[in-house]
């Protein structure tokens, strides 16, 4: 029998599409949280610099003392960002496993039991960073780069005999900037036909999993609760328009700091989703996936030749030496940093008949 991708099933496609939207909300909440943390620490940095202005200008050696306090701020900052990464990884991984099991059960029209093992979760949480290296070191590296920029700006201000205002402005200019949060889809939507919303069918779970109920509740709360900003940004040092809010544009759009910490977090999130997809398919006895690339002018060669091929076809081509100049050895996405590819599990158990309608994703999630 020839294997077919599960995306041939409408139930599967609809379920995964709506699931991906929830995952992207979880990512956005974490981005907002990390930006809020960033506002808090950037304000601390500007406070530190402003209160040490006189000292820095008159006693250049005092920058050692300022650098020492900066290290302390950056250490605390890194620890808070790391905690948010871990929460996002955990939520993403667990939610992907639970929803993938349900989507697969729906496509195959089979009831199914699964367990999220502690060892799987530990593996997902201890995975190295998407940009390479241990995650906490990677976060510290990004923050250290910023520290150098801040210290450079301060040193230049001292050399140029900045006024207090000029000095504060110069340090502030070394900070990352906020930008409007993008509505770009992070997880590629599967190829979808018209939306199926047949409410006559009662919601039903086909898959039953063993996992900590508190983890599930945490995910649902995170998804549903509005994010509340706690901190003002370093802009409090400057005259601002009346009604100014640090976390929103004048038009009311949410903003986040667009810099390497944020980009790394998005990459990390995509890795957690793909890893969860592979793990839940494997546990359903599925080892074969079809590679799905987004093909546009940004697609690179390595993602392009894999597009539409199955895991074993990719393996075969890699072993044949046909792609010698392809450094990437991936047989399932992600291939590399910035890879937008997705995948469809392949099976020969896909029923020929139309599977029963079990209600949409929202009614499933709200059971
Ligand atoms: Zn690629
Ligand atoms: Zn790719």
Structural account:
- By secondary structure, this protein is mainly alpha-helical.
- The chain has one domain (4-286).
- It has eleven helices and seven strands.
- α1 (10-51) packs antiparallel against α8 and α3 (63-108) packs parallel to α8.
- 35% of the residues are buried.
- The model is unreliable at 191-203 (pLDDT under 50).
- The structure holds zinc ion (2 copies).
Bound molecules: zinc ion
The structural domain count equals: 1
Radius of gyration: 24 Å
What distance lies between the first and last C-alpha atoms, to the nearest angstrom? Answer: 37 Å
Q: How are the strands ordered across the major sheet? A: 1-7-6
Instruction: Characterize the overall form.
Output: elongated
What characterizes the major β-sheet? 3 strands, antiparallel
Return the structural class. Answer: mainly alpha
Count of helices?
11
Average of per-residue pLDDT values: 89
Estimate percent helicity: 40-55%
Poorly predicted regions: 191-203
Number of strands: 7
Strand content: 5-15%
Give helix and strand order, one letter per element, not per position. EHHHEHHHEEHEHEHHEH
